[in-house]
What we know:
A hairpin with an 8-residue loop joins strand 3 and strand 4. The protein has 2 domains: 3-124 and 279-290, Roll (Diaminopimelate Epimerase, Chain A, domain 1); 129-273, Diaminopimelate Epimerase, Chain A, domain 1, CATH 3.10.310. The longest helix has 14 residues, at 76-89. The protein has an 18-stranded mixed sheet that branches. The chain has helices at residues 33-43, 76-89, 135-145, 172-177, 182-191, 228-240, and strands at 3-11, 20-25, 48-52, 61-66, 71-72, 98-103, 106-115, 118-124, 129-130, 156-159, 163-171, 196-202, 210-216, 221-224, 250-255, 263-269, 275-279, 281-290. It is α+β, with helices and mostly antiparallel strands.
Amino acid sequence: xxxxxxxxxxxxxxxxxxxxxxxxxxxxxxxxxxxxxxxxxxxxxxxxxxxxxxxxxxxxxxxxxxxxxxxxxxxxxxxxxxxxxxxxxxxxxxxxxxxxxxxxxxxxxxxxxxxxxxxxxxxxxxxxxxxxxxxxxxxxxxxxxxxxxxxxxxxxxxxxxxxxxxxxxxxxxxxxxxxxxxxxxxxxxxxxxxxxxxxxxxxxxxxxxxxxxxxxxxxxxxxxxxxxxxxxxxxxxxxxxxxxxxxxxxxxxxxxxxxxxxxxxxxxxxxxxxxxxxxxxxxxxxxxxxx
Length: 291
């Protein structure tokens, strides 16, 4: 029996028991994929990560990311939360406030930002790949969400590691009032090979621009509290539909209010459409786990 360090970190928040939790297992070299998947199902969190020695030159560590049902090449809140845990544990050291994470999506830079006495971590999301929106998808998604959707700009699948079907609902209050049909969402996501659906609406607030919700029932996660890759897909959608200029190259989205886990995601989008997802994190469980 092995005993390895373990942390549970709340991400996109500075307050314990808010944001989105991720379980982080250190020293996972030698564990097989089946065991990792079973442990991720046991934690019953939206994601569990496993920290391993890097295999590529230039990486500071390697990360494998599992939902209760499958492995993901990339996810935002696990990347931010794991980087927080790794720095806190001294598993790796930042150089010039930067780390490099090796994961299924390749080598991803992580930037450490210090502002107003707080530390925020930003991970660069993989380059987005866009699927096509059409009337059939718009109609089917509207039926699953329980409201009619406009087709310009149309909902569309966006791959940022995992694939999210993204829809613009215009207003934050519309986002918050949703009561989706999870069975219909599950069928739609499977049809489009997506991990879930992410919707957003504008708040009218200068400090917090968007209200976001992410649903991934096909992956055993009816509602993801605060989703980094979902927010990366939203930023990519806004960039692709030429709406990003209304928010600026840096904005804040809020997510999680409907599940009492409210968090804040800081989003940066440069002129070339490169997206960083960031925020704060706090460790809530610090100990060891027997494998």
